[in-house]
Amino acid sequence: MAIFKRMSLKTGNTSRTNAAELTLRQSIYPLALVTVLFFLWGFSYGLLDTLNKHFQTVLGIDRARSAGLQAAYFGAYPLASLGHANWILRHYGFKAVFIWGLCLYGVGSLVAWPCLLYRSFGGFCAAIFIIGNGLGSLETAANPYITICGPPRYSEMRINISQAFNGVGTVVAPVLGSYVFFKDTGTSVNALQTVQWVYLAIAIFVFLLAALFYFSPIPEITDADMAFQAEATHANTVIKPFRKQYRLFHAAFAQFCYTGAQVAIAGYFINYVTETRPNTSASLGAQLLAGAQGAFAMGRFTGVAVMRFFRPRWVFLAYLTLCIVFIAPAITQRGNAGVAMLYLTLFFESICFPTIVALGMRGLGKYSKRGSGFIVGGVCGGAVVPPILGAVADKYNNTAPAMGVPLAFFVAAWSYAICVNFVREYREPADRMGEAALGIEGAAGGRVEGEAAKDEGLVATEKGGLETVESGAGSEEIKER
Predict the structure, then answer these.
(1) What is the mean pLDDT, run by run of 10 residues, along the chain of 481 residues?
(2) Which terminal Cβ of the chain has fewer Cβ within 10 Å, N or C?
(3) What topology is assigned to 7-219+242-436 in CATH?
(4) How far apart (Å, rounded) are the C-alpha atoms in residues 434 and 429?
(5) This model's pTM is above 0.90
(6) Is 466 helix (H, G, I), strand (E, B) or coil?
(7) Of 5, 101, 63, 100, nearest to 387 (Cα)?
(8) Distance between terminal CA atoms of the chain?
(9) In whole angstroms, what is the distance from residue 206 CA to residue 215 CA?
(10) Which residues pair with 469 in a beta bridge?
């Protein structure tokens, strides 16, 4: 019983721990464990893109109806990020949400098994909705955890490295679909039935991973920690009520538009290449999709390297601008030229999602957990844009002209990239967090200790292996806010 008591998931938000000041070395294990989650939902998302085309073939449904998969998957995100997952995050902490999300993912995978066996598209959409709730819960916790756990200076680089493994997952899934599930069985009902074993394996794996998270001593990060981090870096010089955090809401809008465009392009990639490139089968289309997702993953690793030398906000502006530049010709180009345009688009999409998360959360302080729910909730754009693209493609009986839909949403997301680079209220919090010495070993001002802590009226106590710092008045102030 002692071990279960020690592993209690209940965490207060008014006590400060040293989790806001973790060094790179101290943050390696928790970051590595959380990064496994990014591969999981990359694999799930990549498998969904592959199944989209094959449901059209096997079940004889049109493009607009097949978008129900994306609608169910991404439509679950705001329910999780603004609802149940965000409530658990604010009342119990990050670890509890990780376990909750993994359990939902496992349950949804078990439900998917019989639905695939009996070729029930509606039932599979319901299973995907449960999986989407699980993955939405994981993203609600994992994205802010990666940005906060470790030196603030490297938050954009950390989340892009972790998200790169998401890209690896999106590569593995279509490769599996092309070479294992749908090879020479493009029109066979048995093709979908073979996928059931993957979902069974996923269910077993995520339940085991949930147990690992429960017993792992990962540091918990409280609202007080995040308030301290923002104040120590002078990133939130003006405290405003949550409803006036306009930077956050603009970031959530950008996430909605960007994610919708990204999901629509990937979801109809196989349709695009089979229609515009001569002699391209659905199986070859899945292979080309795997290559495009490989370009996406490579773009993330490349983006991290570029961020080592340039400000993340500059890199974000450049990458999103190039998404617009390369998706536009895909509307009119055909054959290998059109496919190349989509490859380049996916390459430059790579860093956009995680960088919006990191920049949008800069300087939120005590609002970080709540704010992450809004940014992750923007992922529901993936439920809105693909059906629009599918409807346009059905109207023209061609997917290529419908690529104008993601182009329009990229342009809308571009407004945030412009503001975060050229509007002072957006730019300063990003730059101040990016220049902070907090958590950097050997850097002056990297940690608050001894007399500096006393000057702030803080009293250090030991709790659960982490240094918990409380201040009567300060805690009440945080609780009141």
Answers:
(1) 51 61 77 86 74 68 72 85 89 90 92 82 87 90 82 79 79 69 53 73 90 86 73 61 86 95 90 88 82 88 88 94 95 89 94 89 79 86 88 89 94 95 84 59 44 36 39 39 38
(2) N
(3) Growth Hormone; Chain: A; (1.20.1250)
(4) 8
(5) no
(6) strand
(7) 63
(8) 36
(9) 14
(10) 16, 460
